[in-house]
Amino acid sequence: MIPKISTLGGYIFEYQKSVSNPTGFWNNIAESFYWRKKWSSVLEWDFLRGDAQWFKGAKLNLTENIFERHMFFRANQPALVWEPNDPDEAHRSLTYEELFDEVNKFANVLKSLGVLKGDRVAIYLPMVPELVIAMLACARIGAIHSIIFAGFSAQSLSERMIDAGATILITSDGGYRGNKTIPIKAIADEAMENCQCVKTAIILKRTGEEVAMQPGRDFWWSDLIADVGIHCPATEMDAEDPLFILYTSGSTGKPKGLVHTTGGYMVYSAYTFKNVFQYGDGDIYFCSADIGWITGHTYLVYGPLLAGATSLMFEGIPTWPDAGRFWDIIDKHQVNQFYTAPTAIRSLMALGMEWLNNKDLSSLKVLGTVGEPINEAAWHWYHDHIGKNRCPIVDTWWQTETGGIMISPMAGITPTKPSYATMPLMGIQPKIVNHEGKELMGNSVEGNLCIAFPWPGMARTIWKDHDRFIKTYFTAYPGLYFTGDGVKRDEDGYYRILGRVDDVINVSGHRLGTAEIENAINEHPLVDESAVVGYPHAIKGQGIYAFVVCPQFSTGGEEGIKTSIQLAVTNMIGPFAKPDKIQIVNGLPKTRSGKIMRRILMKIAAGQIDNFGDITTLLNPEIIQTIIADKNDSESKASN
Ligand code: WT7
Is the pTM here over 0.85, yes or no? Predict the structure, then answer.
């Protein structure tokens, strides 16, 4: 049994233990898992080299900890409950035993296609149970999955498959999202054309639409699964063998393939899941995130299933067929813990209270949020109207890089404060540093958030680029892991995350690099250059504001060029990265050395018209007033 803390005193006591003797602490937690061979050392690390190895020398297979370990008590308990996009379609439920059979069968399919331990398997699927089956089948045979969110464009998909050197792609004919059907196979086909490494594709039938099948490359999931056995021995993995690669955006244009390994990720995902959500036997837990992002990996699939939970997955969107969809699901399945993003809460809040009428939310015990700062109004709405003033909210701060939750209340244990992620979890040692790298001690301080000591769930490297890993996370403040977030520690020692301090923006909980969007915009033949910044947006948290230098308009004028910029971004990244606002400008504020002064553009995008601070290093200070005047002009035009 994975240990569960149940009182505030227990938290304080365990936390002290976990930081005064981290290896002793994690050694004990790890003991509750099934290892084929135990470790020779709990932790070896050197942050200056970006190195951490947990449970060195240990052998295991993570899926044995989901299936074999639970088979005696949980064979007939639902592991996965799937709620389809269309409420009129029947939901599906797979017990631990049924899921195990499917995982084994699909693992045998992968083996029959020649997939070996260490091979990279790309997965580009909508939110259907087969996505979980595919990822666990990879883990069963030691293949490294790399899941690409099905909202990414063909170009993004191929870029990621090439970087990972994927040899096989698992995808579907199409997918449903609200009232839309997404042509997944057509996008995958385009991506595979540009990427020589993928030799085989497995296609799941979801929508049943006609798709082109390339003989010798494309195979139907249903055909392959028809004649394989339901037993597949688990491949023995080293604790530090990679489990998956997941791409995320950084401050340069190229996405980073973060590598998570087997033993530490297993221990951390399951332990944090059980403790933060205070999951109890028989509870129904619902995480609304897409598995294409880290939240889905850790807190829809791995954490819950390792902890023997029943995890509910939802294919659709919160606003279709109407804005009561989440509440219907909670009512129908009597959900006990619900985990979603602030952006979803804000958008549902804006659509009014009527969607809550006649929904029975009394099963709820715990509410969670993740992905971006939650503002107080949204926190209170969630607390009062969804949790009916009786469910604790866990505002969980973490990152793709951290693998699991780092700073968060433990439900019902840690006293909460609206918009505060509150306190560090077990073993997590946050430090706040100023720009000179000096640690800010005590309470009532604000600065950059770093972590001083390794934790088992942390990413180990960037795929094929350890130097970039060191440079990105371990160079700004030598000896510390730098998160990229600003943070405040208040008078009570509570942590409040203030948002990114680098060129990363967070749009509806999706993390995007401004450089990535700029690259896409700059692809447009008429664009000279561009600068993208985030600005406060009532629903999305941050909106995308693009300042574009584009000296000549073609036919269609300004509107035409804006439309084709949107199209370029959709094609290169995906529809979720489309700018909310595009302003055509004559120039960008630059320093004498040619660097764009983003700080100024951020202020302009946020509606500020003066107090730009020190602009003496600017080569073209007059451009500021021009940009502001043009912005006001186009905004008044737009509102007329
Ligand atoms: C960035 C990481 C980790 C799951 C989803 C996002 C922001 C995350 C919170 C929170 C304020 C948050 C941070 C972080 N973030 N959770 N509870 N409060 N900000 O993962 O895509 O890797 O993004 O999301 O800025 O650095 P991600």
Answer: yes
